[in-house]
């Protein structure tokens, strides 16, 4: 059982978060707003928990990481299956036993019984694998073995030695996987690991007692066994399913501990083993089970891809005991899982982990990739192979160190897995480029846990608790003086597009620095939460930033709960700030300066040409321009995108007609951006042409037309939207389009939609009603002020405030309510109104007996405090309540 402090968020930390949220009239329950715009059959419960109840997920992850501090390989595999993948054990199968194979008599006496037991365990595992894959033909098995690695990487430049295939069809792979009982393979792997562990002691004893050198390769019950004594041996066999070495300094160049449609085990009990191996090796399982146990002193592991703890529709695990070890791999290694479990467990020593891509606790769909290091001063390095282009010309993907990803599509795609890195002791260095150190993408979960030591985290972008698109990213560092450095941005707890990111540093004097440093950022309806519990910390930039999107709030929370903290160069007292939509910053005893804005702005677009100034070219030339115009407009692709868009604009309406006919029905998000740019530049005729496609019977085409209407603010579509709202597949997208188009015709349907049980749908409807501003929605707004979903409440405040004549008296009534939350809601509405009468009414609340009301009054008045109220505000800097004092100390008086 994990301790209270290590295994969950402490009461002190919860209280600190409660105080921070209090400033914004929020509670811990308000963190649990809806963030799942899509659902699919591959979603893991732990991923949903991170989106639905972020702090509960933090507790679950803290406990899971901490449990990895003890136990054998089989115990950690069991944790991965039950706690990470939420799988109950399958019913296991066993082979009927016959008489012992006479070949066993060829072995030294001391190893006969352990080998017989291990061969029997492998037979049982193979029996389970055969049953689990029995619905596949031999050709389908081979197809899965060859295409699963391609799908895992989605990177054609990484080749695999066991296949000449370069392409895959994801739907085909998924269809074949539905025929496989992966849970049975995982359960069989745990049983096999447990049996291996039960025989390690006997094998060690045999190694000590057998004096004569021997190395034998023989067939036992149809399985190839390669076994040697305590000499210095070389293993180059590729067909052995049981490899055992009892001692010595050994070298491996063949294949061991790798199961490809079967089960295999490797055991090395010597010192200083060296593994120089190719793909699919040393603790790798693809549609099978591969287990490797290595004891003794310093070992060297040099491999390519699919090695050192990699499981694809199976289980691959490597356990290394003690020693200063070195691991080098290309991809799908050092703890990688997809539709299975990949585990690397190192129990001690100062170790070095080096990998290029999808390594060091990484996962994709249905998988758990886990790297556990229990002791030592370790170095983790990932990157250097696959350029993150066109975003960067010289920076690479890492996809590592607690990283997971799904497969993103505009209609939902396929959810990802759970990637974990657990380091329990030592002064460690985490070095990466992009997507690393607790990062995630598309309905997945990435987490890094470092329990002790003075650690260094260094990355370039998308790192250190970075959740991109409907996913969870959790970085926990529980002790030591740590430094968190990001060279570009998007880190230090940034939740983007419904993403949830949390960085918890529990103790130590820490430094946070980034090129665009905003620790604790919520963006595009996401949640970013940075919590530093204690220590004298330094921050290059100031956090607690919420950036609104889709007409609704995001939530960024920065909370430092103790120590003498530095923000750039200036020292001041404790502070509390509520800003934007919606950012909260709370330092209960620190010092602060807001750092100047930094970061390089994107290049400005080229001037738009005159529509119709270019003749319509051939379809082939239009296709070429379209492909260039629909790249990601970043880095090296910026000039290409701008030039191609301008040519399409110059062609004018014929280009829009061709784009719509040829591509609208299957356009992705980047292509839709190009549609918006071209349609808006060409003008009314183009807008009308695209708006008419809202009526298309093809749901995908109609959805894409609605997205263009939304992003392009195309009013011409307003009359078509009520019918779209009646179609379930279009409803949410149509609601957003209704707001952008100002579709008054849609108001009755939108009012009804606010009652939806789907809170994301309800929020979209309220936001649309705010944008439309029709007074028929006022009563709906007042009802929603008490919604349990805080984004809905905030949108309802904006809706009510659209109608000043009715909002002003209602808000004054709310302020007088006995319920403090409702009173604060009234102040927030008055703040949205912002007229002199409203500001005077807020001023009366500065002397309210309730501290929360005083805080809300200060927040609402900041930057525009009437002269007659400035004395009252100044006096609150000496308020008895520290939260009120903190907010008052940062209030701007304005002119």
Summarize the topology.
Elements: H1 4-7, H2 11-23, H3 45-52, H4 54-67, H5 73-84, H6 109-132, H7 138-153, H8 170-177, H9 182-209, E1 215-220, E2 223-228, E3 234-235, E4 242-245, E5 251-252, E6 258-260, E7 263-268, E8 274-276, E9 284-286, E10 289-294, E11 300-302, E12 305-307, E13 310-312, E14 315-320, E15 326-333, E16 336-338, E17 341-346, E18 352-359, E19 362-363, E20 368-373, E21 379-382, E22 397-400, E23 403-405, E24 418-423, E25 429-431, E26 434-436, E27 439-441, E28 445-450, E29 456-463, E30 466-468, E31 472-477, E32 483-491, E33 494-496, E34 500-505, E35 511-514, E36 521-523, E37 527-532, E38 538-539, E39 545-547, E40 555-560, E41 566-567, E42 575-579, E43 583-587, H10 619-629, H11 638-651, H12 653-663, H13 669-682, H14 684-691, H15 699-712, H16 721-725, H17 731-741, H18 747-753, H19 759-772, H20 778-784, H21 790-801, H22 804-815, H23 820-833, H24 836-844, H25 851-861, H26 870-875, H27 882-890
Parallel strand pairs: 2-4, 3-5, 4-7, 5-8, 6-9, 7-10, 8-11, 9-13, 10-14, 11-15, 12-15, 13-16, 14-17, 15-18, 16-19, 17-20, 18-21, 19-23, 20-24, 21-25, 22-26, 23-27, 24-28, 25-29, 26-29, 27-30, 28-31, 29-32, 30-33, 31-34, 32-35, 33-36, 34-37, 35-38, 36-39, 37-40, 38-41, 40-43
Antiparallel strand pairs: 1-2, 42-43
């Amino acid at each position: 059982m994990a301790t209270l402090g290590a295994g969950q968020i402490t009461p002190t930390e919860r209280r600190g978060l409660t105080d921070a949220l209090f400033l914004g009239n929020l509670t811990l329950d308000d963190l649990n707003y809806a963030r799942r715009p899509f659902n699919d059959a591959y979603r893991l419960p732990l991923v949903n928990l991170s989106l639905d109840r972020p702090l509960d997920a933090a507790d679950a992850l803290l406990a899971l990481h901490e449990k990895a501090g003890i136990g054998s390989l089989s115990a950690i595999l069991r944790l991965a299956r039950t706690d990470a993948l939420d799988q109950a054990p399958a019913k296991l199968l066993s082979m009927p036993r016959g008489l012992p194979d006479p070949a066993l008599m060829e072995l030294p006496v001391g190893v006969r019984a352990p080998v017989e037991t291990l061969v029997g365990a492998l037979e049982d595992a193979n029996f389970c694998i055969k049953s689990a894959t029995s619905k596949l033909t031999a050709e389908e098995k081979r197809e899965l073995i060859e295409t699963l690695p391609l799908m895992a990487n989605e990177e054609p430049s990484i080749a695999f030695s066991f296949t000449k295939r370069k392409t895959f069809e994801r739907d085909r792979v998924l269809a074949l996987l539905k025929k496989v009982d992966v849970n049975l393979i995982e359960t069989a792997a745990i049983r096999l690991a447990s049996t291996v562990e039960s025989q390690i002691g006997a094998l060690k004893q045999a190694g000590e007692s057998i004096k004569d050198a021997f190395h034998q390769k023989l067939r036992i019950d149809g399985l190839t066994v390669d076994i040697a004594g305590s000499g210095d041996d070389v293993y180059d066999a590729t067909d052995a399913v049981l490899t055992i070495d009892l001692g010595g300094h050994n070298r491996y160049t063949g294949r061991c501990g790798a199961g490809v449609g079967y089960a295999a085990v490797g055991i090395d009990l010597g010192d200083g083993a060296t593994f120089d191996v190719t793909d699919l090796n040393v603790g790798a399982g693809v549609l099978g089970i591969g287990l490797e146990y290595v004891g003794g002193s310093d070992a060297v592991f040099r491999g390519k891809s699919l090695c050192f703890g990699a499981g694809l529709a199976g289980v691959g695990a490597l356990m290394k005991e003690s020693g200063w070890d070195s691991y080098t791999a290309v991809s799908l290694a050092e703890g990688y899982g997809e539709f299975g479990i990949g585990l690397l467990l190192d129990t001690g020593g100062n170790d070095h982990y080096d990998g290029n891509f999808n390594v060091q606790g990484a996962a994709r769909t249905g998988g758990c990739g886990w790297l556990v290091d229990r002791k030592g001063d370790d170095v983790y390095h990932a990157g250097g192979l696959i350029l993150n282009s066109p975003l960067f010309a010289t920076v690479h993907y890492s996809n590592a160190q607690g990283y997971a990803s799904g497969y993103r599509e505009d209609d939902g795609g396929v959810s990802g897995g759970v990637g974990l890195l657990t380091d329990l002791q030592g002064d460690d260095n985490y070095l990466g480029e992009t997507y690393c150190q607790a990062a995630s993408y598309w309905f997945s979960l990435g987490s890094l846990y470092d329990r002790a030591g003075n650690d260094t985290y260094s990355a370039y972008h998308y790192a250190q608790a970075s959740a991109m698109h409907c996913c969870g990213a959790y970085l926990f560092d529980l002790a030591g003086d740590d430094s968190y450095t990001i060279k570009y941005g998007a880190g230090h707890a940034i939740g983007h597009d419904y993403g949830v990111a949390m960085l918890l540093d529990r103790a130590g004097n820490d430094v946070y620095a980034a090129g665009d440093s905003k620790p604790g950022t919520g963006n595009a309806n996401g949640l970013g939460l940075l919590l530093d519990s204690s220590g004298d910390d330094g921050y290059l930039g100031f956090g607690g930033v919420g950036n609104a999107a889709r007409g609704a709030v995001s939530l960024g929370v920065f909370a430092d709960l103790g120590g003498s903290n530095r923000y750039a160069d200036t020292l001041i007292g404790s502070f509390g700030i509520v800003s934007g939509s919606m950012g909260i910053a709370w330092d209960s005893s620190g010092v602060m300066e807001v750092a100047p804005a930094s970061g390089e702005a994107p290049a400005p677009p080229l001037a738009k040409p005159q529509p119709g100034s270019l003749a319509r070219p051939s379809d082939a030339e239009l296709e070429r321009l379209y492909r260039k115009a629909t790249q990601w407009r970043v880095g090296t692709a910026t000039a290409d995108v701008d030039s191609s868009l301008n040519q399409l604009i110059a062609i004018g309406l014929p280009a829009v007609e061709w784009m719509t006919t040829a591509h609208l029905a299957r356009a992705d998000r980047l292509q839709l951006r190009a549609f918006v740019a071209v349609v808006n530049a060409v003008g009314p005729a183009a807008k009308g042409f695209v708006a008419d496609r809202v009526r298309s019977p093809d749901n995908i085409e109609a959805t894409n037309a609605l997205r263009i209407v939304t992003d392009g603010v195309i009013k011409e579509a307003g009359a078509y939207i009520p019918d779209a709202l009646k179609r379930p597949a279009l409803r949410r997208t149509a609601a957003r389009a209704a707001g952008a188009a100002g579709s008054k015709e849609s108001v009755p349907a939108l009012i009804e939609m606010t009652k939806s049980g789907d809170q994301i749908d309800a929020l979209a409807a309220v936001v649309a009603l705010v944008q439309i501003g029709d007074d028929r929605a006022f009563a709906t707004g007042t009802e929603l002020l008490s919604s349990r979903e805080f984004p809905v409440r905030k949108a309802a405040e904006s809706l009510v405030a659209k109608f000043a004549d009715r909002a002003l008296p209602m808000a004054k009534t709310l302020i007088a309510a006995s319920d403090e939350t409702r009173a604060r809601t009234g102040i927030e509405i008055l703040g949205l109104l912002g007229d002199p009468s409203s500001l005077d009414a807020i001023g009366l609340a500065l002397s309210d007996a309730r501290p929360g009301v005083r805080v809300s009054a200060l927040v609402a008045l900041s930057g525009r405090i009437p002269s007659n109220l400035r004395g009252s505000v100044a006096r609150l800097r000496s308020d008895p309540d520290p939260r009120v004092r903190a907010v008052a100390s940062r209030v701007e008086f304005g002119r």
